Amino acid sequence: ELRRTKRRAQVPLESEASADEPALKDESNPAPDASLLEVELRKAIEEAIMHLPETQRMAMVLRRYEQLSYEQIAEVLDLSVPAVKSVLFRARTELRSRLSRYLG
Asked: Which helix (H) or strand (E) holds 44?
């Protein structure tokens, strides 16, 4: 009987978390510093876009955020399709330059 009283409950470390027990680590939530970096990057991108010339800014917003085709952007901005491609190329080049510290 002494052995029975000295035994302790053992919980295996490899056991799966059950429905009523949460997992020890929630992998879906990023680390706090990662979410801060994401917020900082988002602000830097917005600021860099705001510093683009108006035509480049409008073309970039229409392409990336409104997901318009080159043809639709050309119609909205009253440009040719090759001109839209050129404007977007220059906008991306400028953004890469402004955001180089974040791009590695």
From this structure: helix 32-50
Pair 99, 44: CB distance under 8 Å: yes
Give me 26's structure tokens.
């929630």
pLDDT tens column, 12-57: 555 555 555 555 555 566 677 778 888 988 999 999 999 999 999 9
Does residue 38 fall inside a structural domain? no
Q: 């977007």: which residue's tokens?
A: 88
Which residues constitute the domain of residue 72?
A: 56-104
Provide the 3-class DSSP secondary structure of residue 10.
coil
Put simply, whether the predicted model's pTM sits higher than 0.85 gets the answer no
CA dihedral for 9, 15, 17, 19, sign (positive or negative): negative
Cα–Cα distance, 79 to 53 (Å, whole number): 15
The enclosing domain of 77 has a CATH number of 1.10.10.10
